Amino acid sequence: MLASRESPNLKRSSVDRIFLIDVYNVLAGIDLLGSGRPGPRAVSTMQRLVNALRSGGRLVLIDFIPQPGLPHVSEEQAVRDMGDLGLVLVDKRPAPAHGMYVLTFEKP
After folding, report:
1. Closest by alpha carbon to 53, among 3, 1, 7, 105?
2. Overall pTM surpassing 0.85 (yes/no)
3. Disulfide engineering: 53 pairs with which of 6, 14, 97, 107, CB 3.0-4.6 Å?
4. pLDDT in tens, 83-106
C-alpha cells in the first residue's frame, strides 16, 4: 500500500493495529512556533488513520519527549489530540529507549 502525506490510502475498518514511531510530529505538521496544535490537514490525515482502524483496533504512538532542539508532541498533547479523534487511552508507559514515551489508544 503506497501512502501519501495526505492519506494513508487504507480502507475504512481494514486494520487492527497502527504503529506511529517518531512520526506524529511530522504527520501532524505541528506548528511548534505557533499554537502547537495540528492544523486542518493533519487532523484530516489522522482521522483517515483512525477510520482505517476496526472497532477495538489500537493505535500505538511512540515518540520523543519534547526537549530544546527536539520539537516533538508532548504526551499530554498527544492524548488530547487522539481523544479529539475518538480514541481512548488504554496504556501509557515510558519507552525502552531513553527520552521516549509509548501511548496505546483503542477505537471504541
Report:
1. 105
2. no
3. 107
4. 999 999 999 998 877 889 999 999
User: Which residue matches cell numbers 489522522?
Assistant: 46
CA distances from 80 to 72, 74, 88 (A): 15, 10, 10
Here the cell at position 77 is: 498533547
| 56: number of Cβ within 10 Å | 9
Within 10 angstroms of residue 82's Cβ, the number of other Cβ atoms is 22
Q: What domains does the chain contain, in order, with CATH numbers?
A: 15-106 (3.40.50.150)
